[in-house]
């Protein structure tokens, strides 16, 4: 029986999803952001013509991969934005520790790919900001806004505060992990997070926040 005009065959979306997943895994490899369209086709075990049939171009495929990464991260972003975790110090400590744990489990590779693909690119740069970087910042904004509304943090530009909270941590993790800074100038990341949170709360907490007690022994590294 002939297909209805304009309909796709039953396997089209399944195959497209397979190609997208294979491309995602290739792009997340250490050299993945520079992978050519041909190399992405080889990773998916199809011809360039087949990959072009499904996605049109390398740029369009990379945009689809970024959107897919965003969809995969939505449950974690929602938790980061809204899941209650006590008063402000406990809440922000949980947020930063969650960012650290996620980074070690693959979020860091996602951001390294996005930065490598997006820097200097008029289309992929804004896509990285929209799909991957801003969602993390906006999750921080939502958490901070709740603590401002509860009277625990001073009123401020919440976007600026989110940048102040998140960006030093992201830079520190890129330094240690994706740039292999741990091999030439190691950083005690756990201690850095504690000091960073103390500094942030001294600047933003309504009541004076005492610093967290020092940890015993040497801290863990990234």
TrEMBL record:
Residues 36-55 bind DNA. Pfam families: TetR_N. Residues 13-73 form the HTH tetR-type domain. Coiled coil: none annotated. One of its GO terms (molecular function) is transcription cis-regulatory region binding. The keyword DNA-binding applies. Keywords: DNA-binding. It comes from the Bacteria. PANTHER family: HTH-TYPE TRANSCRIPTIONAL DUAL REGULATOR CECR, HTH-TYPE TRANSCRIPTIONAL REGULATOR RUTR. This is Transcriptional regulator, TetR family. It comes from Cystobacter fuscus.
């Amino acid at each position: 029986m002939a297909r209805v005009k304009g309909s796709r065959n039953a396997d089209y979306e399944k195959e497209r999803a397979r190609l997208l997943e294979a491309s995602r895994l290739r792009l997340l490899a250490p050299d993945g952001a520079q992978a050519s369209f041909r190399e992405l086709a080889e990773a998916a075990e199809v011809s360039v013509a087949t990959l072009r049939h499904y996605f049109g171009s390398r740029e369009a495929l990379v945009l689809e991969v970024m959107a897919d990464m965003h969809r995969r991260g939505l449950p974690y972003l929602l938790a980061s934005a809204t899941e209650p975790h006590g008063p402000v110090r406990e809440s922000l400590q949980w947020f930063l520790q969650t960012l650290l744990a996620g980074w070690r489990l693959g979020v860091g590779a996602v951001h390294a790919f996005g930065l490598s693909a997006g820097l200097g690119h008029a289309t992929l740069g804004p896509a990285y900001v929209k799909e991957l970087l801003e969602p993390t910042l906006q999750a921080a904004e939502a958490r901070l806004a709740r603590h401002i509304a509860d009277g625990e943090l001073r009123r401020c530009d919440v976007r600026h505060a989110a940048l102040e909270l998140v960006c030093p941590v992201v830079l520190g993790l890129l330094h240690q992990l994706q740039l292999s800074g741990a091999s030439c100038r190691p950083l005690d990341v756990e201690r850095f997070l504690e000091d960073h949170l103390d500094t942030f709360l001294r600047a933003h907490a309504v009541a004076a926040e005492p610093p967290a007690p020092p940890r015993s022994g040497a801290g863990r590294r990234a």
